[in-house]
């Protein structure tokens, strides 16, 4: 089956965008689910808690040793009591932070069990303080040994999890950077496509109002501009003139020198017209060998002067070879709004009637057709 280039372009664009969209969604989903597992994992805070808990464990052992050595010293008892209150609180804090990390899922049963067991032993330890148990020193050492294992093993896992979190963050920032790059690329490509479309649209609209042989404005552009200025003059009372120009016996140029020579003569004539008009005036080719000049801000006298100048310049025009030496003449019809023409159809009809009279009157002349 034959597919048009437009169909292939649309298909390619759709597939490209669908693939890009799928890749983005997949990447976003993967990273979001992985990031979700790390959400709330405050590893630095957890590390701080564990290190403090380790220090408190050593403190408890020392305080218990001191109390065993000097059972009557109230400061030692007070220190032990403070640590017995502080340590379970610390364990609670560690458990709470742990529950918000992926470590909770990874099976910390052994460590949590050790903490729970130690907590129970800390609760019963208080009862052994009055009077101080003879085994206090040994109890302190056993507690420290148990907790040292639990805390150092936990610290090790936290360090590994923190490293994994850092790797994830690095990958996330690369993914976000890539995504932003892709979005910028797509936006850039769209902007370029839009700019290209806009250029093409402008070129098309330019072509739709341009005569292809001479590059002059065409009938449509002349009509649009004339209507615009007529509307303006209806408000400000200004004057507008229209010159119609028809080359005389142009058929003879084609017959004598051939159609391409006729084309070249038309182009030379168009160039001459363009070079003789002022800025606001517009030259158009209406078709064949018929041209027009719109003078948006001129009355009959100025338009007549220009018409005469154009007529003389036509007769003096050097045509390109092989038609060089051939004398081209033009007949012109002129009308202006002052003469009573207030719409383009009326203005054109009056100028055309003037042109008809110029042809009838022997050609190579300008006739003004004023409204009665
Ligand atoms: N080479 C060339 N000739 C064109 C073009 N358009 C129209 N013509 C020719 O212009 C000639 C116009 O002929 P007519 O309408 O009989 O008018 P004319 O020979 O100029 O005579 P009058 O207008 O009566 O003075 C025809 O031979 C057309 O073929 C064009 O684009 N290129």
UniProtKB/TrEMBL annotation:
<keyword id="KW-0812">Transmembrane</keyword>
<feature type="transmembrane region" description="Helical">
    <location>
        <begin position="172"/>
        <end position="195"/>
    </location>
</feature>
<feature type="domain" description="GGDEF">
    <location>
        <begin position="238"/>
        <end position="371"/>
    </location>
</feature>
<keyword id="KW-0472">Membrane</keyword>
<keyword id="KW-0548">Nucleotidyltransferase</keyword>
<dbReference type="InterPro" id="IPR050469">
    <property type="entry name" value="Diguanylate_Cyclase"/>
</dbReference>
<dbReference type="GO" id="GO:0052621">
    <property type="term" value="F:diguanylate cyclase activity"/>
</dbReference>
<keyword id="KW-1133">Transmembrane helix</keyword>
<dbReference type="InterPro" id="IPR029787">
    <property type="entry name" value="Nucleotide_cyclase"/>
</dbReference>
<keyword id="KW-0808">Transferase</keyword>
<dbReference type="InterPro" id="IPR000160">
    <property type="entry name" value="GGDEF_dom"/>
</dbReference>
<dbReference type="InterPro" id="IPR043128">
    <property type="entry name" value="Rev_trsase/Diguanyl_cyclase"/>
</dbReference>
<protein>
    <recommendedName>
        <fullName>diguanylate cyclase</fullName>
        <ecNumber>2.7.7.65</ecNumber>
    </recommendedName>
</protein>
<dbReference type="Pfam" id="PF00990">
    <property type="entry name" value="GGDEF"/>
</dbReference>
């Amino acid at each position: 089956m034959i597919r048009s280039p437009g169909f292939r372009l649309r298909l390619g664009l759709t597939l490209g965008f669908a693939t890009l969209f799928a890749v983005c969604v997949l990447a976003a989903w993967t990273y979001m689910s992985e990031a979700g597992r790390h959400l709330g994992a405050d590893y630095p805070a957890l590390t701080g808690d564990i290190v403090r808990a380790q220090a408190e464990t050593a403190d408890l052992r020392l305080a218990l040793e001191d109390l065993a050595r000097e059972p009557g010293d109230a400061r030692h008892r007070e220190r032990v009591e403070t640590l017995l209150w502080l340590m379970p609180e610390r364990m609670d804090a560690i458990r709470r932070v742990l529950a918000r990390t992926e470590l909770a899922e990874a099976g910390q049963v052994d460590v949590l069990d050790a903490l729970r067991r130690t907590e129970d032993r800390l609760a019963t330890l208080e009862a052994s303080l009055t009077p101080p148990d003879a085994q206090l020193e040994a109890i302190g050492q056993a507690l420290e040994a148990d907790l040292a294992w639990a805390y150092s093993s936990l610290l090790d896992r936290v360090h590994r999890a923190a490293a994994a979190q850092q790797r994830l963050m690095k990958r996330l920032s690369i993914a976000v950077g890539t995504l932003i790059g892709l979005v910028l690329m797509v936006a850039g490509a769209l902007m370029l496509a839009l700019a290209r479309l806009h250029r093409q649209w402008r070129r098309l609209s330019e072509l739709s109002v341009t005569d292809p042989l001479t590059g002059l404005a065409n009938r449509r552009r002349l009509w649009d501009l004339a209507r615009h200025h007529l509307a303006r003059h209806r408000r400000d009372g200004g004057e507008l003139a229209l010159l119609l120009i028809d080359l005389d016996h142009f058929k003879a140029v084609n017959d004598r020198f051939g159609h391409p020579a006729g084309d070249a003569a038309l182009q030379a004539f168009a160039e001459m017209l363009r070079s003789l008009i002022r800025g606001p005036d517009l030259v158009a080719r209406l078709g064949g060998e018929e041209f027009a000049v719109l003078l948006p801000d001129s009355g009959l006298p100025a338009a007549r002067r220009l018409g005469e100048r154009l007529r003389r310049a036509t007769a003096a025009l050097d045509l390109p070879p092989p038609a060089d030496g051939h004398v081209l003449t033009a007949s012109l019809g002129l009308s202006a709004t002052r003469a009573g023409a207030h719409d383009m159809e009326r203005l054109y009809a009056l100028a055309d009637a003037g042109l008809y009279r110029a042809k009838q009157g022997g050609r190579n002349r300008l006739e003004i057709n004023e409204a009665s």
